[in-house]
Design a protein that fits this description.
A two-stranded antiparallel ribbon has the order 1-2. It is 69% helix and 4% strand. The chain is built from eight helices and two strands; from the N terminus they run E-E-H-H-H-H-H-H-H-H. The chain has one domain. The chain is mainly α and 210 residues long. The termini are far apart. Helix 1 crosses helix 2 and helix 2 crosses helix 7.
């Protein structure tokens, strides 16, 4: 029995969902989550891991899957970069909405300011931040060749790395899909740890200034 994935008005198993999506659906989801403003809520890490696990069972070809996921991540970041470069400044004057929240921008701005170009790679492993970082790179007019280089590295490390992790685990542990829920919860917790650490560090810094 697969782990449940909660979506608005839907309760469907993650495995069944990914099987229905297929190669094209997974490619589109990774593309959208990687740099399209409203894609921040999509389940990137858990999606890649589960797809890799299914590849270990013959549902997908791991190399075709990995290539498409990496390609989607690269294209998505490029969309975010050029959106930020051309339209991004107008975001700062918008009111909050379901798909747009200034707190996401503020969090990503602080992350980008701290890590510079490396943020393009590091953000791949942080939900929400990975969607808005390429947009900030565009808003900040990061040199495109520099951005593209870090974008490709991050896409390969994240897109192929997380997928292969699921693939190797599926090959190493019998019936690994039965443990999918705790594994996904673990991935989600680990993904948010950098954000939690940054919030704690920021609050401690503010306290010392008082």
């Amino acid at each position: 029995m697969s782990a449940p994935l909660a979506l608005p008005f839907i309760n469907i198993g993650m495995i069944e969902l990914i099987e229905v999506l297929g190669y094209l659906g997974l490619f589109i989801i990774v593309l959208v989550e990687s740099g399209v403003v409203f894609g921040f809520f999509l389940p990137g890490d858990s999606l890649l891991f589960t797809a890799g696990l299914l590849a270990s069972q013959g549902v997908f070809n791991i190399w075709v899957l990995g290539f498409l996921l990496v390609l989607g991540a690269i294209i998505g970041d490029n969309i975010g970069y050029w959106f930020g470069r051309k339209i991004g400044p107008a975001l700062f004057s918008r009111e909050d909405s379901f798909f747009f929240n200034k707190r996401h921008l503020e969090r990503t701005s602080a992350f980008y300011a701290k890590y510079g170009p490396r943020a393009v790679i590091l953000a791949r492993f942080i939900p929400v931040v990975r969607t808005f970082t390429p947009i900030f790179a565009g808003v900040g007019n990061m040199d495109y060749s520099t951005f593209f280089r870090y974008n490709v590295i991050g896409a390969v490390v994240w897109g192929m790395g997380v997928t292969l992790l699921g693939f190797f685990l599926g090959n190493s542990i019998p019936n690994a899909e039965h443990f999918l829920l705790p594994i996904i919860l673990g991935i989600i917790i680990v993904s948010f740890l950098p954000v939690v650490f940054e919030i704690v560090r920021h609050r401690r810094a503010k306290t010392k200034m008082l």
